[in-house]
Amino acid sequence: MQKLIRIGTRESQLALWQANTVKDLLIAQGYAVELVPIKSDGDIDLVTPLYEIGVQGIFTKSLDIALLAGKIDIAVHSMKDVPTQLPNGIVQAAVLERGPVKDLLVYKNNTDFLQTPQYIANIATSSIRRKAQWLRRFPLHQMHNLRGNVNTRLQKLADENWDAAIFATAGLERINVRPENSVELDWMLPAPAQGAIVVVCMDHDDEVKQACTPLNHLATALCTRIERDFLRALMGGCTTPISAYAQIIDDQLHFEGSLCSLDGTKSLEVEKRVPLAAAASVGIDAAQEIIDMGGDDIITAIKNAKQ
């Protein structure tokens, strides 16, 4: 008889969508599965900006604790929220096939402000990566902190005197709340592993690892690992404006990465195209190129700004 697999998840609509997706895939294999909702620190404090909280693991820590305590068998996360170093004893069991990767601008009235340089628009986001890239393109715009789950942020945009807010396309589309008044930001480079869902479990739990193996999408797992290698090599996290996107095109690995200053005035960018057979070290190699271009100076300035 197969064991009951307990899936730990945050309680937001998007997190539950992700967990139910994993649940359905496991049930299709014949496993008995139940969801175990758990609150995270990031869901409780919706006021403090993420960079002030010390965001590394803020959306995953509570689930990690439940996993280590044996209260759940697997945890399901938005992969971009997961620290590049997992806690001792916890391993990546599967990465699902990636969804939409890009960021999305949801606007209230129109997008005229994008073509009107003298207009000082008010733009909301909780991500300093999005803020830095936006200010690089629109240095006069005013940025506002926006926290909470997807539905909370959409409502706050409606309530506040803002022109627009930035979201992950995947988050809105997965729960069918993408407004008509939205436009994908093709020019904005996403967070490492954006649009991907990861399943983690205990290293010693061979039965659960075996159950999760068919869920693993090899191309997504490779691309997100390269992106997270880039992030880790630059000693970055959610509080550093680091962007990365890897994709496989015609048996080649295409990689784009960037590091921005907090105010967007400085940006270092790298692009690489390599055969798949030579892709393993692309993220680390790209990070070294950023460092050689002066990336350490930007990282030091970011660290000093947070002290």
Structure description:
With 307 residues, the chain is an alpha/beta fold. Helix content is 35%, strand content 24%. A five-stranded mixed β-sheet has the order 2-1-3-10-4, with helices on both faces. The protein starts with a strand and ends with a helix. The relative contact order is 0.15. It catalyses: 4 porphobilinogen + H2O = hydroxymethylbilane + 4 NH4(+). Keywords: Porphyrin biosynthesis, Transferase. Monomer.
Record keyword descriptors for this entry.
307 residues, alpha/beta, D-Maltodextrin-Binding Protein, domain 2, Double Stranded RNA Binding Domain, five-stranded mixed sheet, Porphobilinogen_deaminase_C, EC 2.5.1.61, Hydroxymethylbilane synthase, HemC
Short overview:
It catalyses: 4 porphobilinogen + H2O = hydroxymethylbilane + 4 NH4(+). Residues 222-291 form the Porphobilinogen deaminase C-terminal domain. By secondary structure, the protein is α/β, with parallel strands linked by helices.
